[in-house]
Design brief:
Strand order of the largest sheet: 1-4
Number of helices: 4
Largest sheet: 2 strands, antiparallel
Number of domains: 1
Distance between the termini: 28 Å
Helix content: 25-40%
Order of helices and strands: EEEEHEEHHH
Strand content: 5-15%
Shape: globular
């Protein structure tokens, strides 16, 4: 199993795709190794897999983790819900990229860098479809406006 990190914008386009790593590598470690630079004062919405990742000059927005053996308060739950409403769009982008089965199926290819190339192509196809999607089309593969 392999994994990538990606960054999307509010229009559901993939802006950044990390290199491909083995599935047991932690998300934060991938970010640390990639050495990303962000514009000052940008809002970075991240999930709890990036706990502790905090680049300088960036506003981090992520859900509050529940402490072991304790419950989250009502305010924390409402905050997490508001963060999740925004983050769900990123999860939708990941799901749309996985429509291309080659991304999620087991690959038996041994060519070095092949997984990176496949992921880049699928993210590019996703961006292409998002850019040129018809406004009112009933085909769910073309990502119509109501998905």
């Amino acid at each position: 199993m392999v994994k990538n990190n990606l960054i999307t914008d509010k229009n559901n386009k993939v802006l950044y795709l990390s290199s491909t790593y083995e599935g047991n590598v932690h998300d934060k470690k991938i970010c640390d190794e990639e050495g990303l630079c962000f514009p000052q004062e940008i809002n970075l919405w991240q999930d709890t897999g990036f706990q502790g990742y905090s680049p300088e000059g960036v506003n981090i927005i992520q859900p509050i983790k529940k402490k072991k053996g304790k419950d989250l308060g009502m305010n924390a739950k409402k905050y997490n819900q508001s963060v999740s409403k925004f983050r769900v769009y990123v999860e939708h982008v990941i799901g749309r990229i996985k429509i291309f089965r080659i991304v999620k199926d087991t690959m038996r290819n041994v060519i070095t860098g092949f997984e990176d190339l496949i992921m880049e192509i699928c993210c590019g196809l996703h961006n292409f479809i998002i850019e040129f999607r018809p406004v009112s089309n009933k085909n769910p593969l073309l990502y119509n406006e109501k998905d």
